[in-house]
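Listing S7. Sequence submitted for prediction.
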Amino acid sequence: MQTSMINTPRAATSSAFSVESRNGRPDFELAAALQKVPPQQQAKAQKTATDFEAMFLNSMFSQMTTGLKGEGPFGDTPGTGVWRSMLTEQYSKNFAKAGGVGVATEVYRTLIMQQAKTVRTA
């Protein structure tokens, strides 16, 4: 039995952000915008989007752990809050670097679309 493959146009990107990110379908609008934005600007937008998601996740994790008292890996000492904040910061950075929850993808798309609109075509 032979299976056929459906060929869909793909934009060649070296980033972790996929052009096929809109509901599992190719995002031709983003692919066109990526052609207008220089690679160094794409890398900067990717880092900015990932950093934003890490900050967002850090805020979420901090809210989740504010009510915790004692009985945790840090016990109930005066420095618990400091250590817990460092732990949540590292958690958020690792989550965002591993793909996050999808916030960075949308922020990246928005940044690229805005930059593509401001690029002057000669």
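Caption to Listing S7: primary sequence and predicted structure tokens for the chain studied. The CA atoms of residues 10 and 45 lie 20 Å apart. The chain is about 55% helix and 0% strand.
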